Amino acid sequence: MPYTTFSDAQVNSLIKAIDADGYAVLPDWATPRQLNELRALVSQTVADAGNDYVALSGRQSVQGTPLYDWGMSHDFVDLCRRITAGVTGQRPADNGMTQTLRCLTGNGGRRESLIFHYDSYVLTTIMPVCMPQTGERGDLLMLPNRRPIRRSYLHNLLDKVLVDNKWVQRYLRDRVARDEQAFTRIVMQPGHMYLFWGYRSLHTNLPVAEDALRATAVFHYHNVHGSSSLASRLRKSLATLKGPNLQDDVPQT
User: With contact defined as beta carbons under 8 Å apart, do 140 and 194 qualify?
Assistant: First the structure.
């Protein structure tokens, strides 16, 4: 990546942009060569999945690619830590990063769209690898900074339950159809890195045409309630009900 260390002034500028506009952008995060390499990975991954929706979670699934390097990059993790510290007033752990390569196409891609949610992580960063140029592009849509960082996991869970139900989801989809201008729509460009408060912002992606492809590298940083004993007990209970393949808070962005 062309970016290395960031000055305090640059970090503060990113924080101010996220607070004011809902998001900030680091242009040309990926070089053209890196983008071509990642597009080849996406093409193979989607083909292996039968040309339908697929997500690769964690660094091990993208070994030998720039995505693996960025997830391990001291400079990138340090940037996320400093941005997160600026909004929380706390020093997050340097190992608080998760990542997913998310590929939307086919029927599965449409099912995974227009699902509004809050993230469990303070900072969400997205770098598009492939975006449709015309038609249904799958643009990022959000109501930015709608809630504070909750002091308790229980309050955070209540926020999520109030959103993650068919009535509220239908209301939000209808609102998009009636008045899309009420939302912040981000027309993302491949290779740019987009940053926003995933924990505080209600967000989703717009649909993607079945014969198109939208692929994004999603990095989450600092799970606010990661040490909550209640959260741990609930995860264990869900794992028992749903099996060992349960993934907690898989990005839907």
Answer: yes
Q: What distance in Å separates the CA atoms of residue 79 and residue 169, rounded to the nearest whole number?
A: 33
Interatomic CA distance for residues 188 and 25, integer angstroms: 9
Q: In this structure, are residues 127 and 234 in contact, taking their beta carbons and an 8 Å threshold?
A: no
Pairing of strands 121-130, 97-104: unpaired
Q: What is the DSSP letter of 137?
A: B
pTM: 0.89
Dump pLDDT digits (tens) for 2-14: 677 899 999 999 9
User: Which H/E stretch holds residue 33?
Assistant: helix 32-48
Edge to edge, what strands does the sheet with 184-186 contain?
Answer: 184-186, 140-143, 202-205
CA-based nearest residue to 109, from 175, 42, 59, 171: 42
Cα separation, 57 vs 60, in Å, equals 8
